[in-house]
Design brief:
By secondary structure, the chain is α/β, with parallel strands linked by helices. It contains 23 helices and 14 strands. It starts with 8 loop residues before the first helix and ends in a 26-residue tail after the last helix.
Length: about 675
Amino acid sequence: IYGVTTDPFWDIVFAQARQAADDLGITLRLDRLEPQPSEEIWHAKMASKMINLCNEGVDGLFVTIPSENVVRAIEECQNLNVPVMSVNTGAELSQKLGLIHHISQLEYTAGFGAGKRLIENGMSEGFCLNPEAGNTALVERCKGFEDALAENSIPYLGMISVPLDNEALFTANVEQAIDREGDWDGLGVLTVGASVVSALLSLKERRPALLIGTFDTPDALFQGLEEGTILFGIDQNPFVQGYMPVWLLTLLSHTKQHLQNNFIETGPSYVDESPSEALQVCVLNDFEVCPRPVQENKNQLTRIRPLGLALAAVSLALSTFFGVWVWLNMNRSCIKKSQPLFLGMICIGTFLMASTIIPLGIDDSIVSPDACSRACMAAPWIFSIGFTTAFTALFCKIWRINILMTSSQSFRRVNVTAMDVMKPFAILLTLNVIFLLVWTIVDPMEWERNITSSSADSRSSYGICVLGRSGVSTAMISCLLVVGFCVIVLANYQAYKARRISVEFSESKYVAMCMVVMLQVLLIGIPLSVLVSEDPVPRYFVMTAIIFILTMSLLLLIFVPKMHFVNDEKKGRRKTNSTNVSGLRIVKNPHHQSGLSKKQVNDLENVFKEAETYIGDTTELETLLTKAGINIQKTTLSRFSAAWMSSQVNRQGTQLNAGSEGAGSQCNEPEEEEEEE
């Protein structure tokens, strides 16, 4: 029995009292009065209703004690053996009357704490707004506020009485009491009733420097906290003040038992930041639509992430190991012929590709959604640049040896350095950077959490990187795919051209194996990624596996054979399938791509040893061989004309060994240092 219909604080109290009655299956009667001309009339009507209820024979009564005007009514109920509890207001009077329980916050303590908080925020003068000057609880709040200011030597301008439901009169009363112009810098106010918060915020629009603290948690408080117009609110837990007395009276009526503590403290609790949207809805709907704790499945990567990081660590470690190995052995003949620059680029490329696994494993279980969005864009940057670096290095390696072989067949001397074939890499890398920059600046990917389509109760969700809102993202991805496709096509084309060159000079065999592995992985991995697009755990595993297999196949197929032959070379057990004759390397395997039999090889050795004149073209070489009784097909002869030209240049003091700078996966015995021409 209390609370006028215009005070929103009591909406929650009465709603929870009804909820408790429904839960317990009891009959509850709640009386709420309309605004009265004066507090005396209001309190007199309250007292009259109390007496009538007790005379009717209720099993229990809970009331507020705003003033001594209702004390006589409570005493009459006690004389009729009706259990009485008090809530919210009248702690001291409740103790004097010997009531079973009083349920409220410590009003004086709450006011004192509010004063200290306003002082901490820069208040140099303060006043208290009281919409019910005769309410003992509100007077205690203002008294606590006043004492906090006095303790810190802050001037107290007094308690100002304001109306509950008249904004114009409210503003006039406050302006008249303060009586000063300006923005009220350093002036602080504590309102002890929730019903006047909206009017106070309107006043702040005229006096923007006013510092505001308030009791209770009305709707306007949350908005004020978000906008910074209110410093804090004081929650005294109206839920408990409405729900608990019904429970306690029911318990007392049925069991004659009650709690030993007379005073049940529900506050104060200071609210200095806006609660979640769900909690705001809960409070504003009198706790009837509060969110219940649910076991939501967010499909986060917490469990699978260590596996992905472990695979990334393996690839990163191998890339680093092979890079260091190349650097330590770069003076060896076989490493020189394998072109250390490009081997290093392959290591760098695979290192970057493996690093992509790290941003792919980032979700909202470890960082904020904004950080997840940044990780979304980091992944294509790292992978695209790494992929281009690694496979362009393969292309440049084989292209260089093809240039040397082609020029030798036409009897031309050429000087082809590693930097001469780096232009395609520079062009492709520049295109990658341009496309990625446009994508990142204009229409970047964003991370968001969506409800799983198969979730009937919306308790299953997944986080995913989504493309931007315009078509720029799609266009840039298409351009990056075209660049990547061009890199693969160029590498395969050069490997195909080098298919007839000895494996000592070309890596076409191993490049082809890499392409087969890549094709199989992509044919299986891409459809799987689409199928599990709404399940981050298997999607992360599939993408991690694709990257791991690509990097490992490239590293192992390129570097393991080299390490094997370097090891054999160090131990002196290298078995060669070729011989050097006058600077010309001849492969002895009769099934090799040269097409020569063992007898033809021996005959060629004798011819080259006996030749004393310079052979200037293929015709002269053919004539010499015919005289020696050696018949070789035209195609076979053209293959060796370039090598014979190389031997003749050696005789003139200029070494041109096309094989010495090849991209061989097999290595020859240590040779003298050769000039790269």
